[in-house]
Amino acid sequence: MTEVDAAWLPPQAWRAIGSRRIRVTGSGLLVDTVAGELRQACGRFGGEVVRGTGGEPCDLEMSLGGDESLGPEGYALTGDDTRTVLRAARPHGLLHGMFHLLRSDDAPVHGTFRPAVPRRMLDHWDNVDVHPVMGQVERGYAGGSLFWRAGRPRRDLARVTAYARLLASCGINAVALNNVNVHATEAHLLTDRLGEVAELAGVFRRYGIRTHLSVSFAAPVLHGLDTADPLDVWVRRWWEKTTAQVYATIPDFGGYLVKADSEGRPGPFTYGRSHADGANLLADVLAAHGGVVHWRAFVYNHRQDWRDRGVDRARAAFDHFTPHDGAFRDNVVLQVKHGPMDFQAREPASPLIVAMPETQVGVEFQVTQEYTGQQRHVCYLAPMWSALLTGTHGPALAEVAAEFVAVANVGDDPFWTGHPLAQANLYAFGRLAWDPELDPAAVLDEWAGLTFPRAPRRLFDALHAIMDDSWRTYERYTAPLGVGFMVRPGHHYGPDVDGYEYTPWGTYHHADRDGVGVDRTVASGTGCAGLYPKPWAQVYESPDECPDELALFFHHLPYEHVLRSGVTVIQHIYDTHFAGADEAAGMRERWAEMAGTVPAAKFERVRELLAEQVRSAREWRDQINAYFFRKSGVPDAKGRQIY
Amino acid sequence: MTEVDAAWLPPQAWRAIGSRRIRVTGSGLLVDTVAGELRQACGRFGGEVVRGTGGEPCDLEMSLGGDESLGPEGYALTGDDTRTVLRAARPHGLLHGMFHLLRSDDAPVHGTFRPAVPRRMLDHWDNVDVHPVMGQVERGYAGGSLFWRAGRPRRDLARVTAYARLLASCGINAVALNNVNVHATEAHLLTDRLGEVAELAGVFRRYGIRTHLSVSFAAPVLHGLDTADPLDVWVRRWWEKTTAQVYATIPDFGGYLVKADSEGRPGPFTYGRSHADGANLLADVLAAHGGVVHWRAFVYNHRQDWRDRGVDRARAAFDHFTPHDGAFRDNVVLQVKHGPMDFQAREPASPLIVAMPETQVGVEFQVTQEYTGQQRHVCYLAPMWSALLTGTHGPALAEVAAEFVAVANVGDDPFWTGHPLAQANLYAFGRLAWDPELDPAAVLDEWAGLTFPRAPRRLFDALHAIMDDSWRTYERYTAPLGVGFMVRPGHHYGPDVDGYEYTPWGTYHHADRDGVGVDRTVASGTGCAGLYPKPWAQVYESPDECPDELALFFHHLPYEHVLRSGVTVIQHIYDTHFAGADEAAGMRERWAEMAGTVPAAKFERVRELLAEQVRSAREWRDQINAYFFRKSGVPDAKGRQIY
């Protein structure tokens, strides 16, 4: 077994802190965690940790008792050249402040810091057993689960501790441990296998992270009742009893995550009840213990008829949930994927997210790269998330989100994330969830600085060159202009332009010999464009105003249609695909020059994966170009090779 | 567990025989089998079996001592209205003769009967373990294996006996028990799990069927040697020792079946040796015991570049093997799929089969309906095989084949074959292998008469209406004009026109906005047409002479090209797809009228499957038509709905 990579918390990253005299005052589990971390650093680098008040002033003073307005996780940094003072109202603030100092190295930014949202959560799509088709971690590209192996708990608590520490250091404060598709075995985590959950929760707790569970809406039936009807009194009692037991075992348990009436999962529809009925049952039961329900809005007809162009999956969640705005309890978080489809490399923001003013909405991102290269391709996702959060091409999601959730990208791989550079996505999600205004390139600086302490400048230059624009590079060589879903069905890796075109999944491009794209206008299409607030409804409705990035998401356009960029749709397809594949080749060249600047195993892993990315990008380029050339008959204006 | 269906040997089918006085003379295992079968029938229907010579003349006299020219399996039937005489040179001939009388009921055809080829074999693609993706029986659509369950032998020898009896009754005399893709577990059937094979061989032996095994070419390596080089002396010794042990345990063992250097399987190429080197090693070792090697010719580049139109999978087996004609030992059977691709609903005959005059060639058919509806669609395959055997659109394979082999379609399903009507394919393969001149409709009569004894005439009429043309119906609603491979990759069920178009498997249609089909001419294409003997090379080369059925197999044709039928390619596509789907709907209607004429469970199973066939046929119709309409832009001349 290869040694586990330290990711962005290698011992050397603690040098600046660890060489100081530090006072930590206050008590409690998290203060102990902070003191323990610092003591370890000081032990390595010659500093010293003092507990309690009084005595000589220290280089770094950390204490509770800050302004209550800092809230449960905020902190204030003051001081001068010789001395830093970190104050927080609650221990959790000290933990965040400590990691702030770590990433700021010896130049801390003074000021007051609070998270944008109170909960920043990672969902793990881990199964206890290995699923014959989906593997153990559904949509996981980094090996097996950190929590279970061969149907039993791993009990590698050292690794879970290292993981909790990584999460805490970038601001995550909640995890769901298991797959939202809750299979029979995993349904027992809530009941007779609760001890396994408690053990893991104990580890996460030490880093200020609350543990949640995915539960099956049919859990009462799986445990012997003859119904899971949310209005049935015995069902309610079952949930009350079960939940009381959960909290007796895990007093700070976070709550339940539910994928109901979605892709075949059970849900309230089975009993003629609404999603509000379903979510509120669980919310009421959890409220007594301070827990929350995450209720996923990923509800659509996955038995759609491709012949029927009037049905639009991009409308489905909006149509299902907006009638229920205001009907959900306060401790229900409606968890909505960032786009209206399914984590494509380019989608508009989900119109549902900005249409639920009376509902707590959690925005769900996908750190695991299901549709963005499966951690075999470099694809730094922070620029995509940032654009959605700040509203580059649509409503700014950060303005309405009550919290942020993401699907994790980790596993028992020695590098945690398969591709070592994919660690940056995990880090960046945590940081953007804390502060959506952060610049993705600055977050990359933080991550790179921590991950490769005292590496030569040229490594950081290379990481920026390779990663900063890597999402747009990936977009260039895959599905064009926001149309999405040109992947191989099932596993979703590599191109298959028509792979989903005639399936029941609702994911079409409608390409014919004249044009391509989905007409989602109000005037002549599915009306999806009209679901957005002003000015976006008008912008998306107009083929001339719609951002090129979303042109084929909202419009069926002739190949000769001239985009806002001044290029035709067909020539844009050719140009971006040649460019994207060339950029991938450039990444590989740039990385090859970095030999010796990073540990050999990490260098080699990245090198191998970049070779696959170059191969795959060429395959995408040639298939997409061939497909549209064969259909359109329009030759490339620049005379390049199309097959 | 539902009772196992009697297929075409229900007790009532024995009425005519079982009510007679029968004398059986001769001795030995097979004579005992014959006598036992007859005694059982007479026990039920009042007849009587007499062993030995002398005494009163019987209604049916069966004895050995016929003309030696009848060969090991032939028989002669003589007699008059009151008395039938069956004579054979060997006991096996008596067995075949008995089943002849059974299917002829009380109107036996007199004459002399010998099989066209000495070996008529069924290959079972059964795994001992359940493979996570392929299931237990690879390309099996009838449940699990008859031989193994959950990694262990089933030991349901009553069922295997019933199965052996079914096979013997239609003329099969050899089986291979396990998958040609030999996985690690199955490699041990040859060695430490040989006892399981011996037990099964004992059952098949009682019905004149010899048992063969699929072996891995890498078996020596799997058993501890460091090479499997066919010219290595230790490898030869390993095979000698192993084979001697096999024959010590199973004295009439048939031999080895090998898929080498094919789709990732190990083979002699690994060691820089030829297929002749590989096959001859095993042949020499087996020759000492009277065994044979079946060496599959399914060798092609499955890592092909779709961009390279110069590489043609349809040429691969020809190019690999014809240089070795004459180099194989006499006890090597080169086992060649009937077409040059892979069991598509329409292919020309494989050019390799008729290009190896100095080699024993076994023609391989696929009774399991991998590409022909997977035993959810009615698709009676005998007309396809008959056309290939007798040379309707190409060289007559029956004229050159040394034997016939087929991939079995059975499993532990109560109806044996999933679709009850798919039993007819198994029966028909055996019958055509015995006599390739048989009329498929007459074989259907035999099968139906045995399967549904004393059913009303209208059932037989309906079976003919549903089944006689069902292969062409299936062809009509699937890939057009011989182009093949428009199935979903991997599982191969249902349409996906571009599913294989950009893959490395070598299975393309090259459709663009102007036309479709693969140019395999000598003049401008891959030259595959030129691999055939006269007159077929010229016929296939010419777009005007090439049979419409193979038009797109050999030619890339404009959509407006007028076929020999007088219809354009595009209109042919539309017309056949509407017609095929309508015909499937007609089958369902016709079957619905048969309620009460067949056992309820069988009726219901067929009814359910026909509903799926109708749904699937419509899906094929709409996807194929939509695909070509979107590409060609040519409207249907008859104005029907295309999406």
Please provide a written account of the structure.
The structure is a homodimer of 643-residue chains. The first copy, chain A, has 643 residues and is an alpha/beta fold. Helix content of chain A is 35%, strand content 13%. The first copy, chain A, contains 18 helices and 20 strands. Chain A has helices spanning 15-18, 29-45, 91-104, 157-169, 194-205, 219-222, 233-249, 275-287, 313-321, 382-390, 423-434, 440-451, 457-467, 470-477, 536-541, 551-554, 569-592, 600-632; strands at residues 21-24, 48-51, 60-64, 75-79, 84-88, 111-113, 120-123, 126-131, 135-137, 148-149, 152-153, 174-176, 210-214, 255-258, 292-296, 332-337, 360-366, 403-407, 515-516, 557-558. Chain A has an 8-stranded parallel barrel with strand order 7-12-13-14-15-16-17-18. A 6-stranded mixed sheet of chain A has the order 2-1-3-5-4-6. A two-stranded antiparallel sheet of chain A has the order 8-9. In chain A, α7 packs across α8 (275-287) and α17 (569-592) packs antiparallel against α18. The first copy, chain A, is globular. The model of chain A has no long low-confidence stretch (mean pLDDT 96).
